[in-house]
Amino acid sequence: xxxxxxQASENPSNSPTTGRGRNSxxxxxxxxxxxxxxxxxxxxxDRSQLTSGRxxxxxxxxxxxxxxxxxxxxxxxxxxxxxxxxxQRGNRGPRRGQGRESENAPRTTLTTPRTFGxxxxxxxxxxxxxxxxxxxxNCNAQEFVPGQQLSGNSGKSAIRPKARSNHSRKASKSTAPxxxxxxxxxxANAQYECVVCTNEVLPxxxxxxxxxxxAVVHMACVKKWYxxxxxxxxxxxxxxRCPGCNSxxxxxxxSYHCWCGKDVDPxxxxxxxxxSCGQTCSKxxxxxxxxxxxxxxxxxxxxxxxxxxxxxxxCGKLTSTKRCTETDYTSxxxxxxxxxxxxxxxxxxxxxxCHPDLCGTCEVPILSLCYCGRESKYxxxxxxxxxxxxxxxxxxxxxxxxxxxxxxxxxxxxxxCNAICDRPFNCGKHHCTxxxxxxxxxxxxxxxSPEMVTHCPCGKTPLVDVTDTPRKSxxxxxxxxxxxxxxxxxxGHLCRDTCHSGPCSPCMQIMEISCRCGRTKTSSxxxxxxxxxxxxxxxxxxxxxxxxxxxxxxxxxxxxxxxxRVAAKRKHRNAGFTNEEIEAEHICTRVCGRPLKCxxxxxxxxxxxxxxxSCPEAIFEEISCNCGRTVLEPPQPCGTRPPECHFxxxxxxxxxxxxxxxxCHLDEEQCPKCPFLVEKRCVCGKKTxxxxxxxxxxxxCGLPCGRKLKCGAxxxxxxxxxxxxxxxxxxxxxxxxxxxxxMRICGHLDIEKCHAxxxxxxxxxxxxxxxxxxxxxxxxxxxxxxxxxxxxSPDRGRLACxxxxxxxxxxxxxxxxxxxxxxxxxxxxxxxxxxxxKLYEENPQFAQTYERDFRVFAADPAQRLLRFKPxxxxxxxxxxxxxxxxxxxxxxxxxxxxxxVCLFKTPRFVSAPMKTLAxxxxxxxxxxxxxxxxxxxxxxxxxxxxxxxxxxLLSAPRFGLTIDExxxxxxxxxxxxxxxxxxxxxxxxxxxxxxxxxWRPQDLESSLSSLRPKALQTLKGAGLCGSMSLCxxxxxxxxxxxxxxxxxxxxxxxxxxSAVMRRSTRPTPTxxxxxxxxxxxxxxxxxxxxKKTEPKPAEEDVEDDWEAAAEKLDGE
Length: 1116
What we know:
Elements: H1 2-9, H2 44-59, H3 179-188, E1 207-209, E2 216-218, H4 219-232, E3 240-241, E4 248-249, E5 311-312, E6 319-320, E7 365-370, E8 376-380, E9 388-391, E10 410-415, H5 463-466, E11 510-514, E12 521-525, H6 559-571, E13 618-619, E14 623-624, E15 631-632, E16 636-637, E17 677-681, E18 688-693, E19 769-773, E20 780-784, H7 803-817, H8 834-842, H9 844-859, E21 865-867, H10 873-886, E22 889-893, E23 900-904, H11 917-929, H12 938-941, E24 951-955, H13 963-969, H14 971-975, E25 981-986, E26 990-996, H15 1001-1022, E27 1027-1033, E28 1039-1042, H16 1043-1049, H17 1057-1065, H18 1106-1115
Parallel strand pairs: 7-10
Antiparallel strand pairs: 1-2, 3-4, 5-6, 7-8, 9-10, 11-12, 13-16, 14-15, 17-18, 19-20, 21-23, 22-23, 24-26, 24-27, 25-26, 27-28
Helix pairs in contact: 8-9, 8-10, 8-11, 9-10
């Protein structure tokens, strides 16, 4: 018993009397949705338990109730502060760990408080109270001991405390039949959610209620909702939408007030509904004159229960009094009897059932006669015209009723028939031609009688002036005058016929009619009064009021006004012109149709200026991110994008590699590219590439495609690409875009566009480059081949030999006279250039292979062309240099990577060098290693041997001479030497023209020697210089050798073999010191005044007999 007593005295953790300590704030994962993060305040289930516990505890205050409490339960001071709404967390009552029995004392709950009901015993089997103790206490009951059974004669079990559930009951949503009560109870029980923040609306929260859907929202939330709309909406948009029903609201949310609006910032009053001021509502109700008699309440006002005023029926015969809700204040009611009100005719009464509005017109059919009396018919009473008295002279068929109030022989006509009167006049010969009209008792006088007709038919001339014979009867014709009729016609013009009888003829006048826009006028015959303006072909280009479209119609009546409006606006644009009265023709009636910002709907307004308003639609579904862990609750404006999610993206990669860590994102955004390196096949399928990024979808090997094109003669030259994307994929036919490439009759390649499978026509002249030479084959010039199928060897002209050619020819004849054979002459001469030897030394194996091909080509007299396979650029340089040494002409053909070298035999070629490259390289190497023992060459044995000439020196240049003048003057002379590049530099007293280009310095010196006489003649003719000489300059333009100085100090002799013999017979003189280098170049010295040139020393005459001169020189 003691153990059970102690056990009963313990306070369980879920006891409703337990204070709200830290352990009592439930952290359940239940509650609303997945809002586990809101567990700080506890779930609704826990709060409902606390509320239930407080109600249970309050019932124990009764003096007749027994309490079961724990001694460890501390006393909790009362606190009337409620928890407050969202955003007002400062007023939250006791702190954590303190009790909350009195925190919300006036709060009502749906759970029924537990009462003992004056009995403490329960049935063990059913848990129900003993039926014998329902109305009174049992005085014979045994002492109550918690946890023990009772013993007695009754044989019933002892009383024990009612077992309490581990979970208290939770206050559920209100199920009241009316909306007002449900709102009050849900707010009081913390069961009403704000549609914006989804938090509870509490009794002490500041609220706003929608007047349409009666949704209750926190005042802070609705103001934030309104301000966010203001930032996103158009400047001219004055409406906003309710967050609960999406209805348009005109007024912005004001201050917090009670439900009826009488009390601003109301206080919570015990005993009243939350947010109620306690006054009478007094809101006006629709179709009811009585204000709402209830206390200030939420939601719509209930229907009126008062009696309405007395209300007569439509005809006013009966009166009825009903309840206000049953009274039709708008339409009234009908007694369903005959109306009986007199109609507008004054003769009949309304025969309709009691009805609203006027009785209408009289529809009773009445037998009526026309004014002339010839026609009778039944006409509705309201369609009869005014009654007029008419005389019956016998035209009425059935006679006239005798009981009329007009008189005997008279009748009342009430309508006009379409017949002609046709009553005879008093003459008996003519009849009345008027339409139906009331008849007189006396017959009308004839209008054609002589006394009635006094003027001609046009009315301008009296009959006495027209004829001398007066008319005697009405049958006599009326004479016409000779005046113009000029009677007004129907169209408004005057009759232009001569005075005539009868009606006037139709108007045939020509008139000008303006079109609708008034821009053009058209001449037309009179339209007989019905003028219809024509339409011209002028198109109206006025801008419509939307600013997006033009009118585009023809002959617009408002075009002129639109032009005036635009001109006035342009004139007053700085003054703020505001007159925007658009013509009716220029109002755009199209639907705007532009997509709205939401991207789902289109603007349905009429075409307008400026941006379209926000989408009026709303979304009533949850908007979540891709992973679904971040959600926006409805309603949301249409076009709201999914929220930004801060969780990691869970999308798997299609490649199977791990995902790179990044935040969740929309489907429009791509995940980061896969950074792993893999092996991939190139798009053409030739190679497998390693270390390729996984995200890279089109790896390329870079090799040429090589697939056969449609033509069948060429291969695709594009780099690695997908199948079907060759260079002829988009071309129609079997030809490709590459040049033909077949051999022409002249030996060159056909450069025309591919024409496979047809043969080359060769009708157009060949545009390939070839060479023409002089007679001795020394000079050459590049020209076009110009060969065709009909003319395979066209005349390309021939160059003339220059002075150098003549000099070489003289030397050849001299060698022949001395029986000197250059081919069999053995010495240490190297017939190759230094460039050729240097390239040979770099790659001997390659050089020997092609040197062998050169010698085979040189030994075959029938072979004129040799084409090598494609090779690299430095290898082609070696072939060009070796071709120069052999005397071949060489050129490079085709673009990369198929560029190759072609050799041509020209008349300049004599024979291949006798020494090989290996022999010459050995001679050069041995000479460098043992210079003392090296045999002296002709240049070494001659102490006067100097560098070869590489420039032209102009002496006494004209003052103010420029580089452009020299280039322009010598342009024609430069054209003969396309392989040489000329560079002009100014020295203090001279001008240097330096040449560069040929591989061999001997060729450069020979070309400059042949250029000097022609250039000197050209410059002297233009007065640009005084003299010209050959010279050798270094990289700094220092003159190391000058031909003019050598000529002035030469005693005699000549050059060529004469100089060789002279040097061989003369003793070696002392070395001459090198020439002093000239000063540095100055590009502005050419503007100085020219100095007077000293007279040249007289040149010595050259001896004709060189052998006698040599013997004479030896004798000295």
